[in-house]
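Input structure tokens:
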């Protein structure tokens, strides 16, 4: 009997226990992304004054729900709006915890993000570095996110801790086509700087190129229209560019 079993194993007709051979799935994961955008628009406000942006990020996540990440882009408003002598980069570092809420179908995301804007600024110019904490609830295609600012400076506005942003967004996949339609609305309230307050809204469409050709897996192309009710007198840069004006952005990105 032992000789028969040994022969069966050698010929592959009987395998060794799969549990002993299988590798355990790692609880850790890394992902990265890079993209080219015709304009960098953040919460309705152009960060590049209508110029293109190259962006990229790196993310770590754990199966428990814990995550960390960093992301960067070129910007133009540090010099053209804020008055920096030099500075054209944004670097973000963030982390948090996300997961499901029981069997309700709801998801949550709690975290913090540090926006960093290295550069040289003259005396009297408020630094742009900003610290934000946030919480979000999601259900199917909808997300509600509340962001609260704990730093004294908020994107170059002094004594603005306590400012906040409330955003509502939807992202709807169109069947198995690879097309995703989106829409959003948000409102930004600045503490001690109410003249800067505004609402913004957008509609978008993105297409997964991997549905079209396998070699393009992870590549997304998109189109987004954004507008605000921001006061142009308070959101126009040194080049006479209204940063809150209606704009259409196109992009291509790659996820790894």
């Amino acid at each position: 009997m032992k000789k028969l079993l040994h022969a069966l194993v050698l010929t592959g007709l009987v395998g060794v226990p799969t549990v002993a051979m299988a590798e355990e799935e790692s609880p850790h994961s890394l992902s990265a992304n890079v993209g080219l955008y015709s304009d960098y628009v953040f919460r309705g406000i152009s960060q590049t004054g209508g110029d293109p942006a190259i962006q990229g990020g790196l993310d770590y996540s754990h199966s428990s729900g814990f995550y960390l990440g960093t992301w960067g882009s070129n910007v133009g408003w540090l010099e053209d709006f804020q008055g920096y002598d030099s500075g054209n980069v944004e670097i973000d570092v963030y982390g948090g915890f996300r997961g499901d809420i029981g069997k309700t179908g709801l998801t949550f995301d709690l975290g913090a993000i540090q926006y960093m804007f290295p550069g040289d600024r003259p005396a009297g110019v408020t630094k742009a570095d900003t610290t934000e904490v946030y919480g979000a609830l999601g259900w199917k295609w909808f997300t509600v996110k509340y962001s609260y600012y704990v730093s004294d400076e908020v994107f170059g506005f002094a004594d603005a801790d306590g400012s906040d942003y409330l955003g509502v967004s939807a992202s709807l996949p169109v069947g198995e086509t690879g097309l995703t339609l989106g829409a959003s609305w948000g409102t930004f309230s600045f503490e001690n700087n109410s003249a800067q307050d505004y609402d913004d809204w957008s509609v978008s469409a993105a297409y997964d190129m991997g549905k079209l050709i396998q070699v393009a897996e992870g590549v997304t192309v998109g189109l987004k229209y954004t507008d605000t009710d921001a006061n142009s007198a308070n959101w126009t840069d040194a080049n006479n560019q209204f940063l809150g004006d209606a704009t259409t952005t196109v992009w291509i990105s790659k996820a790894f």
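Residues 2-11 form the longest helix (10 residues). Residues 28-255 form a domain with the Porin fold (CATH 2.40.160.40).
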